[in-house]
Design brief:
single chain, alpha+beta, seven-stranded mixed sheet, two-stranded antiparallel sheet
């Protein structure tokens, strides 16, 4: 296919909406089935969602390939300029092929987030402030200047403590200290009755999903 940036962007945007729809639909299934625990680590939540998405009627209809903990393409590793140990797997990845011509990928970086310090059922203490910071430094920043800077994708927060409005205040306070107020996470659009958030950066616009698992 001759390179047509406008067409490619349109195809990728359509693909992104489909991926977000499958994510939201599978999250709703997760909540309905109630087979989760707020004690879970983020990788467990991601694995749980991937298993549901693979059975999702929309994902099957779209013929998506959905993987977890997949290492992304890295030219520096391919050329021997960087150790494979430095590879950073993406938590969830969608694949598709458009008309046998264009490979489509959508990457989801997931993080557990909490409002305040709490203890899991095994007594382990959860550092809420650290989770909020890592949502930025090991999440958002990877899409801006890090491992995922050239990749299509979004952030996904598993809310395991507190309510979303208060958590967003905490995260945005940290964004203000590390960046500036123009990069706040704000409401974006509604998809299947689920609020999708967005943040605007010099490098790109980034969408954010938050799935409530604290109840």
């Amino acid at each position: 296919m001759a390179k047509n940036v406008t067409l490619i962007n349109k195809i990728n945007s359509s693909f992104e909406i489909k991926c977000l729809t499958v994510l939201v639909k599978s999250y709703n299934t997760s909540i309905t089935e109630k087979r989760f625990s707020k004690d879970w680590e983020e990788k467990t939540f991601s694995s749980h969602l991937v298993s549901l998405m693979k059975k999702c009627d929309l994902a099957i209809k779209y013929n998506f390939t959905i993987t977890k903990e997949e290492e992304l393409e890295d030219e520096d590793i391919d050329k021997g300029l960087k150790s494979p140990k430095e590879a950073n797997p993406i938590d969830i990845r969608f694949h598709d092929i458009w008309k046998n011509e264009l490979r489509l990928d959508f990457n989801v970086e997931a993080k557990n987030i909490s409002l305040s310090e709490w203890r899991k059922s095994n007594g382990k203490k959860v550092n809420a402030s650290q989770q909020q910071t890592e949502y930025i430094t090991k999440g958002i920043d990877r899409f801006l200047t890090g491992h995922y800077k050239d990749k299509n994708g979004c952030m996904l927060g598993y809310l395991v403590n507190g309510n979303l409005d208060e958590v967003l205040v905490k995260i945005n306070d940290k964004i203000l200290k590390q960046k500036n107020a123009s990069e706040y996470i704000n409401s974006g659009f509604v998809l299947n009755k689920h609020q999708i958030f967005e943040s605007i950066h010099n490098e790109r616009k980034l969408n954010h999903l938050f799935f409530q698992y604290s109840n």
